[in-house]
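Attaching the record inline, Q. Sequence:
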Amino acid sequence: MQTSSDRHEYPSHWEADVVLRDGGTARIRPITVDDAERLVSFYEQVSDESKYYRFFAPYPRLSAKDVHRFTHHDFVDRVGLAATVGGEFIATVRYDRIAADGTPAPAPADEAEVAFLVQDAHQGRGVASALLEHIGAVARERGIRRFAAEVLPANNKMIKVFTDAGYTQKRSFEDGVVRLEFDLEPTDRSMAVQYAREQRAEARSVQRLLAPGSVAVVGAGRAPGGVGRSVLDNLRDTGFTGRLYAVNRALGEGEKELGSVAAFRSVRDIDGPVDLAVVAVPAEHVPEVVTECGEHGVQGLVVVSAGYAESGPDGRERQRALVRQARAYGMRIIGPNAFGVINTSPDVRLNASLAPEMPRPGRIGLFAQSGAIGVALLSRLHRRGGGVTGVTGVSTFVSSGNRADVSGNDVLQYWYEDPDTDVALMYLESIGNPRKFTRLARRTAAAKPLVVVQGARHGAGPRGHAVRATRLPHATVSALLRQAGVIRVDTITELVDAGLLLARQPLPAGPRVAILGNSESLGLLTYDACLAEGLRPHPPQDLTTAASAADFHAALSRALADDTSDAVVVTAIPAVGEGSVGDAALARALRSAAAATPSKPVLVVHVELGGLAEALSAATSTAPQPPSGTAPRAADATPRAAGGDGPPAPVVPPEGAHLIPAYPASERAVRALAQAVAYAQWRRDAAEPGKVPEYEDIDERGAAALIEGLLSRGQGLTLGTAETCDLLGAYGVHVHRALPAPDPDTAARAARTLGYPVALKATAPHLRHRADLGGVRLDLADEEQLRRAYAELTELFGAPGELRPVVQRMAPRGVDTVVRAVIDPAAGAVLSFGLAGAPSQLLGDMAHRLIPVTDRDATSLVRSIRTAPLLFGWRGSAPVDTPALEELTLRVSRLVHDHPEVVAVTLEPVVVAPHGVSVLGASVRLAPPPARDDLGPRTLPVY
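Structure, as predicted:
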């Protein structure tokens, strides 16, 4: 328990775990009076040169006065933070609030002097950069807007920390000292720098887990079998290139090996470094193992032990304690309850998992939160399960279990720059930080395909996963992922189908598809499947069942050379009789033709042609291979698929052979192709992302003042009609006036004020926006019609007090739509659009985009709903003013983006006429904005 220093309570929310440049972790926390001994010990380990740079003079030791000064803070005008590993300081930073003349000053002075000191052994790890981010966030919270720092010219490392941070700054030189002043308001450049550092650090932290130089399996049993011994045997048998150790505390005095692997009773007894420890002991013994690993300098843990959050509340607390303990030693964790990790690189050959055999090296990265699904994915690639050919192998595989620490976000950071991974496949049962995942997915998808299937879509996620609350339905989350370039699929079969196509075939340039084959019926099925998926197929070319391999080669060559096709689907059925084409000959013919035109994707639909599937993908079987330079085990003389009953591994064709994915059904092949077409279009669009327009008539300051005044009334409120109109009007969104009509005479006066024709509406909650119930009367041309309509409404639905009738001037006829914006605590600000009434309410036909919305986003938004043809002249109706509608959505996006206190906006109905739009109803809700962790300093999540 930390003790507060002077005036204010200890700010525990400033505590954070961070990933450093080398992939290790450190804990950042405020310095308190309890840290005196730690501070003295830390200072003694700092070199004289570093001390000189900090104090501008020889300063061999801290005096008692110094220790008191550096450990007593008020957490407002004087703040100190420390980075710790293993509970000991490795770096410190502090700020002191100052006045314009540089003397100490209390608030409201908004400048502070900042200074760092980093232990020499930890310099170069990015500790100072992380501390600057955190002390900057603390300072902004305390009303400080600017930092000043004085640095000796020779202290290049510290000058670089400040200049590389990306803040707007001034630099001067006086009396032999460099003075730097910089604003603390985040800029586009400072956020870009922060994201780049985050990516490098998190990628490095995963790399340390996937490419260790040495591995210890803690909990390996004496006899074969059991979790720990299985992992040890898998590591040994697949030829791990590093040093391998077994750890079993029950070993006898004379036992030095387990399964021909050097064995020890404790990690502490190992003579040499251990980069990765696989922990397979009962949960109650894990803390002791973590302590041993931390003290020995282990860099990371794969915890396969169960008994954590998946087992209930006690297990969840045990899991939190595990993460805190590991991070205190600078270690990251995969798991607990993990299946393990695999890296097929010939330089590593790591199988630290329960998978009994190593997949063949390839270009697909796999991530699964579920061990069972991870096994299924490996098996599908391994055996070409379900008829899908194993077009490529696996680069890396991570099964995160309860993902208490390392998550899909971290693995995405690694895959983004991994040269061995061309396609990323992910099975996710929960997304702990959707906002960050969307940001990382967008960046990754711009470089390589990312295919995701999400489990637990219609219920709670696994008990072992801590997930941020979200109010968004699954369909909305899926739409936002697609906007970020993610290829969303519904099953693991589709996940593999898409991955195999994307791994070895080029992206299609468009949706035009040529179809050829030796079966007219199969060609027609493929044609229909293309139409169903929104592709543009050419009529199938039937080569007849008598087609030879040469016929297939010639037809495929012509189709690939045709400028009117962007992809080719080849259909093949078995032929019976003398002279029929053989599997191997057909595969060679197709590969040869495809290789001559490598810019277009080719897919094969085969029916009961197992030999053809194997021949087409022979080069990349995922069947297990012996380590380089070693002979295969007897059991593997003829490699077989997982489980031992799969087909033999095919013969490897010549180097550089063109690899073609084959599918057992046309709809599976075409669906994978359609996903590739959509992804390719997203890539082209992402190259020109659009811009957020500026509108000269927006009154941002006026809106801010109005919001501040309204929020002074309370923490959260729904605005009244007048206030809603004023706030929206500041952003150029004008709502048609609706005057209350508590009686017929008042209704008549309101109509005269507004001008005929008018509409009479009941606004009671059960009748609002429900024209189908008869609570609306339109096109009332005069007072007589108005009074008659008023009488009808009260007769049908009750007294005016229950109906809450209003009178509104008629808007031009058009299409009724709805525009909504909401700030979700997990996903961020989201803009939604659809047609009002049944399409959106009953059918859920809504489109969604993340805010801020660009002009390109707005254009695609209004066109992406299924009922969009109603906006563009469906069945002879007049097209409506979609540019005006797009501008409206952009203005709402700007309002919510500029003012995060606007947590919900609903415009309904918005009538889109042939010329202009009319907003007939609006509601706005204000509240203090939710915390934006993506704008703060880098931190690891705390669940």
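The CA atoms of residues 334 and 406 lie 5 Å apart. The chain is about 35% helix and 20% strand.

More tomorrow.
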